[in-house]
Amino acid sequence: MKTKQFITTIAITTMLFSCASSERVITNDGKIYEIKGDSFYNDGKDVTNELSGLEKEKIKSSLAKQIQAREEAAEKQERIEESLEELRKREKELKQQQKTLENKIESREEAREQFFEIKEDLEEVKAEYQQLKNKNELSAKEEAKWQKRLNKLEEKLKKAELKINN
């Protein structure tokens, strides 16, 4: 892995020097060099001939380290951005799940309220039916109508109960 990075760094450094691009390098002794192609400048003056081969290599090495650090920082930034995007997607999924759950809870609550309304209606109708039956005020035809009405309400109640449980 380190060999691959080193080769990549050398290749990039070589390209930078050959493409006549300009890079600034600060050495350990605090001098600032600008490198354009194979030329070295200090305070705008060409100092290529004044530098020894070892000094040039140190400056090039510093530049390579600087470039490698930039690349690593860019890679880290990219990984961070990818992670952030992944987190955003996950957050969106979780919000959708939360919304779905809230809708389900609301729907169940509405079904529960409807269940109790139907149950109350059924109890009132049963009480009214019982009163009329006890007074013997129902004909056979009316009895059938009341039974039909009670059966419908009981069916509605069963459906409402199923809605709550699902």
Structural account:
- By secondary structure, the chain is α+β, with helices and mostly antiparallel strands.
- The protein has one domain.
- Helix content is 75%, strand content 10%.
- The protein is built from three helices and four strands; from the N terminus they run αββββαα.
- Strand 2 (32-36) and strand 3 form a beta hairpin.
- Helix 1 crosses helix 2 and helix 2 (53-134) runs antiparallel to helix 3 (140-165).
- The radius of gyration is 42 Å and the shape is rod-shaped.
Secondary structure category: alpha+beta
Span between termini: 57 Å
Number of strands: 4
Shape: rod-shaped
Uncertain spans, ≥5 residues at pLDDT below 50?
16-20
**Largest sheet entry:** 4 strands, antiparallel
The share of residues in extended strands comes to 5-15%
How much helix, percentage-wise, in residues? over 70%
Number of helices: 3
Total number of distinct structural domains = 1
Query: What strand line-up does the widest sheet have?
Result: 1-2-3-4
| Order of helix and strand elements from N to C terminus | HEEEEHH
| Rounded Rg | 42 Å
Average pLDDT rating? 86
Which labels suit this protein?
166 residues, alpha+beta, 4 strands, 75% helix, rod-shaped
Topology (elements, then pairings):
Layout (H helix, E strand, L loop, with lengths): L1 H17 L3 E5 L5 E5 L2 E4 L2 E2 L6 H82 L5 H26 L1
Antiparallel strand pairs: 1-2, 2-3, 3-4
Helix pairs in contact: 1-2, 2-3
